Amino acid sequence: MQRMTQRIRNRAPILTALLAASPLFAADHLDTASVIADPRADIGDLYAWTSYDGRQLNLAMTIVGHTFSDRLEYVFHIDSGKRFGETTATTDIVCRIANASNVLCKVGDAAVARVFAGLRDDPFYNNVKGTREAYAVAADAMMGSAKSDAAGCPMFSDATSRLILETWRHTGGGPAKNFLAGWTPASLVVSVDLNAVNRGGTMLGVWATTGQGNKQIDRMGRPLTGNALLGSFADEAASDRLKERYNSATPATGAEFIPEMERTLGIYDGFDGTCGNQLLADPKAASPARYRALATVLADDRLWINSESSICGEFFSVEFAALGGDDSKVIYCGGRTPNDDAIDVYRSVLSMGQATGIDDGVDRDDREHSISDFPFLAAP
Prior knowledge:
The chain has helices at about 5-10, 15-20, 35, 130-145, 160-170, 225-230, 235-245, 260-270, 290-300, 315-325, 340-350; strands at about 45-50, 55-65, 75-80, 90-100, 100-105, 110, 115-120, 170, 175, 185-195, 205-210, 215-220, 305. It is of the alpha+beta class. The strands form 3 sheets. Strands 3, 4, 5, 6, 11, 12 and 13 form a 7-stranded antiparallel β-sheet that branches. It has a 4-stranded antiparallel β-sheet with strand order 1-2-10-7, with no helix packed on it. Strands 8-9 form a two-stranded antiparallel ribbon. Strand 8 (about 170) and strand 9 form a beta hairpin. Helix 4 (about 130-145) packs antiparallel against helix 5 (about 160-170) and helix 8 (about 260-270) crosses helix 11 (about 340-350). Pfam families: DUF4331 (PF14224).
């Protein structure tokens, strides 16, 4: 992750968040020493959704390295319960990969029948350069006349906010470009019967890890959480220590990251020029506690799936239905399919409290991916 110079960090530590929050590759990429040491342990993205016939849970994990390691375990964790945020059972799908033709994924003692491991086109698409240019506009304003309110939200002028959002939709002032076009990570794809993973109920919380022995090396749930919301107000060494703790943590132990996320959420809240309209924000709170409710949800960091639905393609829909009172989202399965514009939705939630509004100008991948035909991800 590229970082600002020490001079800028000393003058305004808050700006580090703006320029460090844009990942260079996938949604969660090369963020700690343990991950950098072996890209075969680095989870780029996690996808999870229900099949059209409502019988299977489809899962995909992309790995930044172009190969897998036979020394590592690649694990999909599926927590199940009766309602959002409350799970009572956990099922792990543990995969060991000797090579592309020798892959074993097990649910308990049973082997998963449908498994693919190999190079595929990366479904993640993101205007990384345009994002960094937009953050630079915000940083310049914060170094100048824009002040922050008591909760840490920068109060940009209407003109500055419009410039931030317009810059975000372009790359170098021209049409937006997908920074990841042509990227081919190692990809692990699994399709498993829902009745094998929903012992606690039909609401599923999905997250993924890589590890060796008792050491958990990397973890992933929603896109950007680890990179965009942690370590934004610390020097590089402290930031790395924080992310190392995050990568070794679980959703059940995520509460320690809430205060850090509160501070970073304050920055995102200001991008649209209005403070206090972020999802779950308390506009009356005159401290970072304004963002505690959303920080608590995000610190859990699981992809949530309503497995009673087989209508997918709406990222964050389970959260909107449960937390935002949006009944129109109830019909969707949630999770994340390979075709979802998840990054735009996630950033819109963080800034405007809705599914649209922040647009990086890249609306689809350069390849066509499927949510029905195994192994789903396009060939490289």
